[in-house]
Specification:
Layout (H helix, E strand, L loop, with lengths): L2 H7 L6 E2 L5 H11 L11 E7 L1 H17 L5 H9 L6 E8 L8 H21 L3 E5 L7 H6 L6 E12 L20
Antiparallel strand pairs: 1-5, 2-3, 3-5, 4-5
């Protein structure tokens, strides 16, 4: 499949099973991530890979952060939160370490981190690795960030779930570009 067709067919897939991406596939994905636009070449993005027992650790941190926000969570809800990372054999937590810079405001650094994640997702798709980028309230929870040993200037951009796609993949929805694009000549 040609590169343009690959771009046009990328779609998130939420049913991901083992195997996780290989080290070789991950290397390609991270090389692609590091090619994202980055004003002043700050490279403020960070990636943490969780697999195996690391998924248990991530689930424990999800629970601690959730209980910090809502101490009265039911056991069913706690179990569900704890198992969120196990929806795939690998979860990458993408973050940005915002730095003070006279020409690169925070918004540019966050957008650059988002572009880096998009490159990672595209490289996964090009290698037939299933992926979905998730956020939710935990992505913005400072307690969780502390549990994951993030720096004070570091923020989560998203949780990237990776694995082998299971089940039918629905065709990517077609959009009418005129709904989103205005041309002024």
């Amino acid at each position: 499949m040609d590169p343009i067709q690959l771009l046009l067919t990328r779609k998130s897939h939420n049913k991901l099973v083992a195997p996780a991406p290989t080290d070789e596939q991950l290397e390609v994905m991270f090389k692609a991530a590091l090619r994202a636009p980055d004003h002043a070449l700050l490279r403020t993005w960070r990636y943490r890979i969780y697999t195996g027992e690391g998924l248990d650790f991530l689930g424990d941190c999800f629970v601690k952060a959730s209980k910090n926000t809502n101490p009265s969570l039911s056991q069913d809800k706690i179990d569900k939160i704890k198992n969120k990372p196990k929806r795939a054999p690998m979860v990458i937590v993408a973050s940005v370490c915002v730095v003070e810079h006279p020409k690169v405001p925070k918004i540019e650094q966050v957008l650059s981190a988002g572009a880096s994640v998009q490159n990672l997702l595209m490289a996964a798709h090009f290698q037939t690795v299933g992926a979905i980028w998730r956020t939710g309230t935990l992505a913005f929870d400072r307690y969780l960030m502390n549990c994951l040993d993030m720096k004070d200037n570091e923020e989560i951009v998203g949780f990237i779930y990776l694995g082998t796609e299971q089940g039918e993949k629905r065709k990517a929805k077609e959009f009418d570009i005129s709904d989103y694009v205005t041309r002024i000549d």
